């Protein structure tokens, strides 16, 4: 997944958690980058009309940005589910983050043929838990 | 979430190679299943699918040998075969056996291409000889590219 899509996904999830525009500080924190880097990328996304950035208010995705962010969350969910269901990886969140930049959507689509993913994906993705909310009870039970 | 380099340890490299093994296993299982179950296929297509399944099995063994050098585990083929079997009917969105095979070959090519780029962009000293690793992966990528061309030619002949 490319860097722009990772940013769109982060903005979408921060917007969801904050129930409003995403602050660049929160976006930077989620991506573990400096606020200056986040600001620069937000500017680029704004030029591509994928988001709007109002000073002191925050960043909001446009409809096109939302579409791309949702695709990126689906890909991320596929990677996480693949790690959990097929490879039985306990540290799946950490590993999914590491794999995300190198797993292209066509590859994710193939991995999707062997995992269980619900049709409502990515609506069931929990930003707080950083995993599909449908998996949370199962994961809690396994702990 | 992170934008860090995805490849900075043997563990991460082994994980990506495991994903390669799984992709090859998916190709192998699906191609073998198509060849065995679709009675309507002509001889040329059936032979192509059988060859594709054999090639994937061979790629898988080459990847497994790299994984072994990294002291990591591989993923058993029967486990993936079972998952392909379970999800096959419900999960198949692809029209036609050859189109499915084209997606398989293109996906594998893209995966190896991205993996090679990530290795080339990493400065980590892996527990496996970098040149051997890259030359093996480049060779597999070339074969996937040839696979894309072969299936495209078959599709064009069938039109």
Structural class of chain B: mainly alpha
Q: Runs of chain A with pLDDT <50, length 5+?
A: none
Catalogue the unreliable spans of chain B: 90-94
CATH architecture call of chain B: Up-down Bundle
Q: Tags for this entry?
A:
heterodimer; A: 143 residues; mainly alpha; Arc Repressor Mutant, subunit A; Diphtheria Toxin Repressor, domain 2; 2 domains; two-stranded antiparallel sheet; 58% helix; globular; B: 159 residues; Ferritin; 5 helices
Folded structure, characterized:
The complex is a heterodimer of chains A (143) and B (159). With 143 residues, chain A is mainly alpha-helical. Helices cover 58% and strands 8% of the residues of chain A. In chain A, strands 1-2 form a two-stranded antiparallel sheet. Chain A has a two-stranded antiparallel ribbon with strand order 3-4. In chain A, helix 1 (3-18) crosses helix 2, helix 2 packs across helix 3 (35-47) and helix 4 packs across helix 5 (92-99). The longest helix of chain A has 24 residues, at 63-86. The radius of gyration of chain A is 15 Å and the shape is globular. The model of chain A has no long low-confidence stretch (mean pLDDT 92). Chain B has 159 residues and is mainly alpha-helical. Chain B has a single domain, classed as Up-down Bundle (Ferritin). Chain B contains five helices and no strands. Chain B has helices at residues 10-37, 43-69, 77-91, 97-120, 130-158. The A-B interface holds A 3, 6, 9-10, 30-33, 82, 86-87, 95, 97-104, 106-107, 109-116, 130 and B 1-7, 12, 15-16, 18-19, 22-23, 26, 30, 75, 79-80, 83-84, 87, 91-92, 103-104, 106-107, 110-111, 114-115, 118.
């Amino acid at each position: 997944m490319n860097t722009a899509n990772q940013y769109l996904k982060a903005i979408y999830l921060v917007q969801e958690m904050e129930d409003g525009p995403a602050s660049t500080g929160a976006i930077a924190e989620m991506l573990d980058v400096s606020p200056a880097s986040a600001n620069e990328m937000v500017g680029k996304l704004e030029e591509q009309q994928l988001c709007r950035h109002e000073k002191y208010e925050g960043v909001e995705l446009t409809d096109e940005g939302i579409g791309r962010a949702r695709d990126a969350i689906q890909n991320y969910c596929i990677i996480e589910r693949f790690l959990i269901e097929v490879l039985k990886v306990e540290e799946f969140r950490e590993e999914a983050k590491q794999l995300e930049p190198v797993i292209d959507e066509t590859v994710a689509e193939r991995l999707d043929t062997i995992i269980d993913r619900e049709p409502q994906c990515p609506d069931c993705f929990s930003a707080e838990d950083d995993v599909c909310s449908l998996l949370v009870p199962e994961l809690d039970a396994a702990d | 979430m992170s934008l860090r380099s995805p490849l900075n340890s043997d563990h991460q490299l082994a994980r990506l190679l495991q994903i390669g093994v799984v992709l090859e296993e998916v190709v192998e299982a699906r191609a073998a299943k198509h060849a065995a179950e679709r009675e309507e296929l002509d001889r040329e297509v059936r032979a192509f699918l059988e060859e594709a399944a054999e090639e994937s099995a061979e790629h898988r063994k080459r990847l497994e040998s790299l994984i072994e050098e990294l002291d990591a585990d591989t993923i058993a083929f029967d486990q993936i075969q079972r998952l392909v079997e379970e999800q096959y009917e419900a999960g198949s969105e692809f029209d036609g056996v050859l189109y499915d095979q084209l997606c398989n070959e293109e996906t594998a090519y893209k995966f190896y291409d991205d993996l090679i780029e990530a290795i080339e962009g990493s400065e980590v000293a892996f527990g496996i000889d970098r040149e051997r690793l890259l030359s093996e992966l480049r060779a597999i990528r070339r074969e996937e590219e040839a696979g894309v061309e072969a299936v495209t030619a078959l599709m064009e002949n069938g039109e």
